[in-house]
């Protein structure tokens, strides 16, 4: 590599070089550099070491430091699908920012949900003496805890495992469903359809519970004819059009933004205007989609960045753990022009 | 953490424990575990060490191993925007898979394009004695090389720096533009509009060059009236509608899938059918969008996974470097129903 031969200079300066330049022993340099408590080093020697470190551009070896201190500054993050969703990236981003803030570095492994890759990733992290592992999934669900995680501190992110005793951080699906529905209620709607997903999941049950709670709070009678179900994508939303229109709804809460996007297509084909003829609210605040539909979609946000950050805070003991072991993060409303 | 106290067992088994169980010296265990060449260990002693390693679930300390071998098994990946695009995830995924295949672990840092965060990330990686660094951007562009990269082997991924002497891996924008245009030519179109981006970039110049080359190859006269420009998002595509219709085009090559999505909205509002009234091809094969438009969008794929994988192969010297320093990766056609 063209820049490698000339540039390795600073990396090849050793503790011995620093000791020689400062006129002290290697042990003294080590004590100063690693800031060992209890080592008695005179101010003069300390100053000479610090000057030599600066003059020689000496870079202490982080691995040696880890060994001498007996613990590493790594946090592992095992994710099942970095590649297939923009969401996982936000979890990584939040976890990394929070880890760095506290002097930790994130080791990231993508497993594609493959058990062998998962075991390899966890073994690698244990070999690097991670402080602990965040185990995350790209959509909120219950998991079987991989046995290898028994060997280290673990926090589950965007997933949970009842009876495992492991702390977890998940989105508050019910509160999110209430928030989305209340946005429609507050705009004056009384006949509100909910297109739920066909996939059993905490999102399915939680958002439905939130929808019903918001109706109850507003004194609106529940009506089973208004609760529909569809595949959680554009095709599902488009296919729901007839049922939505037949229900007599003036507003629709869609399980996610992709469903809303498909519903938009169907409504447009019938010449119906959003929000004048029918109001729509989504869920997720999906990047690239929500803000760019016509009209831009009002929705609630899945707090992926915050899930990652909160996971690190739980792991490091910065946040107190709730007695229930499950921390729920709110999904805030994002107001645009579809209500 | 509930599982921490009980579970740390395996991590606390030391080389000394193994030596005691096997009835050999610690040095012998070290030689066997680290597979040191030149160390003469009898078959019997080797077998006893291996049995003891297994029986005690001894896990060699990867950090100590790195130090004893004088080189690490880390590759660094610095990305400017993990969070704001699903693309970066694919680069990470490809780099990680390829790194693992060769026994390396990826250290990932997200910098949000912030120079201070970038310096911190690179310094951290150097401290961990990475084998080298992949420096990546979320869209293909020319960069200023951060000075700290002079201290290690570097490969640029999805970006380049003329005159830096650094190898880089980028998408072949021109070939991609030719491929997209040829898909329309092959379907019988002669009057093909191109909605280019307003943002100066290799994608802007490369895709235009490919569009023109494909016309030339097909013996179709160039017509400036067919080359439009717009913001590279849904809003830009929607705003291009009148110009597209005025140009008399029967087919449109859109700078990216988001532009195609906006154009779809406009065409639908005018009652025009895709592909019967007008054919559309995109660029990117953007997840969550391209396959789910009505009709599903024909496009060419930005090969982000392969960019990450090829970057690792270049770094490790597995792929031969092209004389030009720039490796271009093809963008394959993805055929759906908009042509």
TrEMBL record, chains A, B:
Keywords: DNA-binding, Repressor, Transcription, Transcription regulation. Residues 13-69 form the HTH lacI-type domain. Pfam families: LacI, Peripla_BP_3. One of its GO terms (molecular function) is transcription cis-regulatory region binding. InterPro entries: HTH_LacI, LacI/GalR-like_sensor, Lambda_DNA-bd_dom_sf, Peripla_BP_I. This is LacI family DNA-binding transcriptional regulator. It comes from Mycetocola reblochoni. The lineage of its organism: Bacteria, Bacillati, Actinomycetota, Actinomycetes, Micrococcales.
């Amino acid at each position: 590599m063209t820049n490698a031969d000339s540039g390795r200079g600073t990396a090849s300066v050793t503790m011995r070089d620093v000791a020689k330049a400062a006129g002290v022993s290697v042990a003294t340099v080590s004590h100063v550099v690693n800031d060992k408590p209890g080592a008695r080093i005179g101010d003069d020697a300390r100053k000479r070491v610090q000057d030599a470190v600066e003059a020689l551009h000496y870079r202490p070896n982080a691995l040696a430091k880890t060994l001498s201190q007996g613990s590493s500054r790594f946090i592992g993050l095992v994710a099942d699908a970095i590649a297939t969703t923009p969401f996982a990236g936000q979890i990584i981003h939040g976890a990394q920012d929070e880890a760095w803030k506290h002097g930790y570095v994130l080791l990231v492994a993508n497993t594609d949900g493959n058990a062998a890759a998962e075991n390899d990733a966890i073994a690698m992290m244990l070999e690097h003496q991670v402080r602990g592992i965040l185990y995350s999934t790209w959509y909120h669900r219950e998991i079987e805890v991989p046995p290898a995680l028994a060997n280290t501190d673990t926090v589950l992110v965007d997933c949970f495992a009842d009876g495992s005793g492991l702390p977890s951080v998940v989105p508050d699906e019910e509160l999110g469903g209430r928030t989305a529905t209340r946005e429609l209620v507050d705009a004056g709607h009384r006949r509100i359809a909910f297109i739920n997903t066909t996939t059993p999941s905490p999102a399915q049950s939680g958002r439905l519970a939130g929808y019903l709670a918001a109706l109850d709070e507003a004194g609106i009678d529940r009506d089973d004819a208004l609760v529909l179900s569809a595949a959680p994508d554009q095709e599902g939303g488009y296919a729901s059009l007839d049922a939505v229109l037949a229900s007599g709804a003036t507003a629709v809460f869609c399980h996610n933004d992709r469903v809303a996007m498909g519903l938009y297509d169907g409504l447009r084909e019938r010449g119906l205007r959003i929000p004048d003829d029918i109001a729509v609210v989504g869920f997720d605040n999906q990047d690239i989609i929500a803000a760019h539909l016509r009209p831009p979609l009002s929705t609630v946000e899945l707090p992926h960045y915050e899930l990652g950050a909160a996971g690190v805070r739980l792991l490091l003991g910065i946040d107190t753990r709730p007695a229930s072991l499950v921390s729920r993060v709110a999904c805030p409303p994002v107001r645009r022009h579809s209500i």
